[in-house]
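Cross-check.
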Amino acid sequence: MNSSTQQPTQSANPVVLAIDLGGTHLRAALVDSNGRIVKQTKRDTPKGDSPACIVNAILEADRELGLDNERVVAASVMVPATVDKAKAIVVQAPNLPCLDNFGLKQALEDKLGRPVVLENDANAAAVGEMWLGAARGFRNVICVTLGTGVGGGVILDGKLWRGSDGSAGEIGHTSVDPFGGLQCKCGNEGCLEMFASGTAIVRMANESLPDYPESTLRSIELTAEKVYEAGLRGDELALSVFDRVGKYLGVGLVTLINLFNPEIIVIGGGVVNGWPLFEKPMREEITARAFKAQIGKVKIVRAECGDNAGLLGAAKLAFDSDEPRAKR
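Predicted model, tokenized:
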């Protein structure tokens, strides 16, 4: 388990314990009402068959951050999953299946003794980018997060659009190659997540190794970061992988543009570091496929809040929630 903690800055405002529960890492931060991160920590997301391992890891992060409980007015947890807001349960978490149909909000409220907000990770990132990032000043926003999986958050007329039961915005599980036979963890075939996530980059690189005998990637254990670095050096295998990422991402974004007519699409997550390698094929697909009237109107930009977008958005949602102790 890796853990590192930043020292606190001066802040007298109430804070929210914001939790970014990713498929790879668990990040926790104390965030005040101005969006200032007072203190934060990071560790590996535990792998196990029981949700207790996740609950215990969050409790450990809370203890590590250790701030006067009177200042911590709420906790807000974002998860890479479909969330039923009415029932306050995690419905389906393809990359953390131990949380499927689990009442994470209630379990944490029982342990922490404070209100808990439960939200989809990409929804939280979208709120963070609209609050303090690339989508400031816009009211019709789509945020796409490219990480271990692919998430999406949709904001229409300034409000999160959750759909009838909270499962809207699952952009990573829209079909971009439904007849290719590649099955996603969600059970569908050809999901965008299978072509534009960090996991997909590693898979596609491994699959293509026999076709590129001169690639520098042949002799190392692959990660998305190593494929990206090889691409910057001009490695043809890596460049071909990011070309595919861009094309499939472009196809996915066309659906969003034609369906929602957003003002701006913000792309974040760890894979966005590969922007210089996938931007061109992404935009080419959008130009070729989207309604022509929309191509010049919608802005498609990189996120500005980096890894902190979701933490900031989670905190904002808690400060704005109806929980009485979470009010500013």
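The chain has two domains: 4-125, 136-303. The domain at 4-125 is CATH 3.30.420.40 (Nucleotidyltransferase; domain 5). Passed to J.P. for a second look.
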